[in-house]
Write a structure and sequence with these properties.
The protein is built from no helices and 8 strands. With 101 residues, the protein is an all-beta fold. β2 and β3 form a beta hairpin. It is globular and about 35 Å long.
Amino acid sequence: MGSWLTTSKGSAVALVINGTKAGVFATGGTVCSGTAGKEAGMQMIRLTCSDGNKDRAEGMVDSVDKTSMKVTWESGLGTETYTRAEGGQLPSGLPTAGLGS
């Protein structure tokens, strides 16, 4: 659980997990929402993006600790390493449409 940050292709990307709900927010306007949870013994993330982007539609959490999380996305995006956001706060400038849904 928590808020995680990475940089991909020059954009800031925030991955937020709260219980079984997950979301991705990226500079440039990408907003994705979906679920996070165990499937067949693996921690999986499944998202649908408002702009139709499928880069982060399905991913597996490879590892997670207090400071970082590594996710391998099924798309050609591959593996991303996220850093835990300070105090659980997201940086300003990220789109938040649909954050409450």
